[in-house]
Design brief:
The complex is a heterodimer of chains A (434) and B (184). With 434 residues, chain A is mainly β. Among the domains of chain A are: 132-300, Oxidoreductase, molybdopterin-binding domain (Sulfite Oxidase, Chain A, domain 2); 310-432, Immunoglobulin-like, CATH 2.60.40.650. Chain A is built from five helices and 24 strands. Chain B is mainly alpha-helical and 184 residues long. Chain B contains seven helices and four strands; from the N terminus they run αβαβααααβαβ. Classes of the chains: A mainly beta (434), B mainly alpha (184). Chains A and B meet through β4, β5, α3, α4 and β13 of A and α1, β1, α2, α5 and β4 of B. β5 (143-146) of chain A pairs antiparallel with β1 of chain B, so a sheet runs across the interface.
């Protein structure tokens, strides 16, 4: 083992806690000398051995001055949303989505420019001075709020994911989707959202006792509209004005969007312009024709709002291949629309044995949660990496087989089955059904 | 049923929750009274009971003319689907291996069809149709699906009599949570 290196790797001799080399979740956290043996990992470029001993150019001349709005390093130009390329002039290019490149991200916050996009008729260019939010219906007094007015209300902030209910929909398919994590799972992102609790505005308008639902409507060309139970609106719903500290991005609903923590993305109506308080649901196109779950018996489940408990490993994953045998950190995201993630177990043998992963602080309810576990990859066949999340309500992420047994394959929405990454002997990592 | 007091109490609890700690002052009340013309312009959603269906009417024949001009390029001349959704047919396929979820085979309410065409279609010029054209295109789509007769007229009254074939095809999964305990 230590033949490869002069210095023993600090994990050498560590006993696996589950099949195919999974190590104890706390081993990587033990002490600072961890990567002194980094050269033990094969495939890592040598440190300057062939270069003449001189300062690099940027050490020898002044750097550039200040800019008004920063952008990532030019060397990071591959960190992009996954966008379906359409022919120029494609007539309905604004009905669709772009996805977050989850495999390239760390921590739990999605940079605003990488938040997934889903729109039904493009991104409107809204002048905030002309935008209005109407609150009416079963209220004592129908009211209009300008952004200027909303800006004077007390605000709250919370870190929450938004996930399209069609996320990971490839899981219902016969063959595993090809491509990096983001192509299958990238319709989820996580931001710090700040704004005005919706309860303030409803309370100000005066809720009629008959009221049980609302209809939320966007100011986009699709006039996106969804019904939401009033109880959710009075619980943790927010009219979000800010995303990660700055005004909500146009793709995310500028100047204001509805935020319904943990509930399917489509209901978090962007470009929010109207709240109608109602007795029952309105049964809009996007809660009947779409975003309902067709079961094998031909009936469709309607109003399945919270996103189920889910996780995926992002490192290693398809396209994030192995760099030769040695020690690795397996890491990924877990999340649940029901509350906090309670635990994530990881398997390296396709679900035969499991070891608990470490949950990275902070762990927030209805937010992306990072998990990590150390692993010694010795090469060889038969390695399938899986992660299985459990949330604080006790809900367990199901296997794909179990999910399909219960819900068939024509559901199209709310897929939360376990993701499997086959690690081939060559180091290539592939999405597989296992 | 919530009594008026219960709703007020629920809202008050919700307010205390969202604020984290009890608010020292109430939020300001800066909403302005909504003017009637703004309400009329914006309040266009139609629930299954038909509230808000406007005056006007249209027939499948009138609808065909509008459809061929403004819809067919994306949905096909008979709603068979082209670059965008198929709107016609598919009855009996919901349990089949190859499923066609269309207005005819899947949609539970005709009000949704009126609401959706008026709010969102045609895709390249949403809100441009007159109410008569909305009734007419909806009538054309319903007639192509065999749900109304080609000689029928669709208006606020007749639309409410339309029974969609898959009206009973949906199972409501929403269960109201137990009210949160008032004292915490």
């Amino acid at each position: 083992m230590s033949k490869k290196s002069e210095v023993a790797h600090p994990l050498d001799g560590a006993e696996p806690v589950a099949g195919n080399g999974l190590l104890h979740r706390r081993l990587f956290l033990r002490g600072g000398a961890l990567f002194t043996g980094a050269t033990a990992l094969t495939g890592i470029a040598g440190v300057g051995a062939a270069q003449a001993a001189d300062y690099p150019a940027w050490r020898k001349e002044p750097g550039r001055p200040f800019v008004a709005y920063g952008t990532p390093s030019k060397f990071e130009s591959d960190t992009q949303r996954i966008v379906t390329v359409r022919a120029p002039g494609y007539p309905t290019a604004g009905a669709g989505s772009s996805r977050t490149p989850l495999q390239l991200l760390e921590g739990i916050i999605t940079p605003s420019g990488l938040h997934f996009e889903r729109s039904h008729n493009g991104v409107p260019d809204i002048d905030p001075a002309q935008h209005k939010l109407l609150v009416h219906g079963l209220v004592k007094q129908p009211l209009v709020f300008t952004l200027e007015a909303l800006d004077r209300y007390p605000r709250k902030s919370a870190i929450h994911f938004v996930e399209c209910s069609g996320n990971s929909g490839g899981g219902w398919g016969l063959n595993p989707p090809v491509g990096p994590v983001g192509t299958m799972h990238g319709l989820v992102s996580c931001s710090e959202w700040s704004g005005v609790p919706l309860a303030y505005l409803l309370d100000e308008a005066g809720i009629d006792p008959k009221a049980k639902w609302i209809l939320a409507e966007g100011a986009d060309a699709a006039g996106m509209s969804r019904s939401v139970p009033l109880s959710k609106c009075l619980d943790d719903a927010m009219v979000a004005l800010f995303q990660n500290g700055e005004r909500v991005r146009p793709e995310q609903g500028y100047p204001m969007r509805l935020l319904l923590p943990g509930w399917e993305g489509n209901m978090n109506v962007k470009w929010l312009t109207r709240i109608k308080v109602t007795e029952g649901p309105t049964h809009t196109k996007d809660e009947t024709s779409k975003y309902t779950e067709l079961m094998p018996d031909g009936k469709a489940l309607q109003f399945t709002f919270p996103m189920g408990v889910k996780s995926t490993i992002t490192r290693p994953s398809e396209g994030v291949n192995m760099q030769g045998p040695g020690y690795y950190e397996i890491a990924g995201f877990a999340w649940s629309g029901n509350g906090k993630i309670a635990r994530v177990d990881v398997s390296a043998d396709g679900g035969q044995s499991w070891a608990p992963a470490a949950l990275q602080d902070p762990v927030f309810p209805k937010a992306l949660t990072r998990f990590r576990i150390p692993w010694e990859w010795k090469g060889g066949p038969g390695i399938v990496l899986q992660s299985r999340a459990v949330d604080e309500t006790g809900a367990v992420q199901p296997t794909r087989d179990k999910l399909i047994e219960e819900r068939g394959i024509k559901n199209a929405y709310h897929y939360n089955g376990i993701t499997s990454w086959e690690v081939r002997e060559s180091g290539l990592v592939k999405n597989v059904w296992a | 049923m919530f009594g008026r007091k219960r709703v007020a109490a629920a809202a008050a609890v919700a307010l205390a929750c969202v604020a984290g700690t009890a608010l020292a002052v109430d939020p300001p009340k800066l909403g302005q009274r909504a003017p009637a013309d703004l309400l009329a312009l914006m309040d266009k959603s139609i629930p299954p009971d038909g509230t808000g269906l406007p005056p006007g009417q249209g027939t499948p024949v009138q609808g065909q003319a509008v459809f061929l001009e403004k819809c067919a390029v994306c949905h096909g001349p008979r709603g068979e689907g082209l670059t965008n959704d198929r709107l016609v047919g598919g009855e009996g396929t919901l349990t089949q291996e190859i499923t066609a979820k269309t207005v005819g085979s899947f949609w539970p309410y005709a009000t949704t069809l009126f609401d959706y065409i008026r709010r969102a279609m045609p895709y390249d010029a949403p809100t441009s149709l007159k109410d008569d054209e909305v009734y007419a295109t909806a009538a054309y789509i319903l007639a192509l699906n065999g749900i109304i007769k080609e000689t029928d007229t669709l208006n606020a009254e007749t639309l409410m009599k339309v029974k969609m074939p898959n009206a009973d095809g949906f199972i409501n999964q929403w269960v109201e949570p137990a009210p949160k305990a008032a004292a915490r």
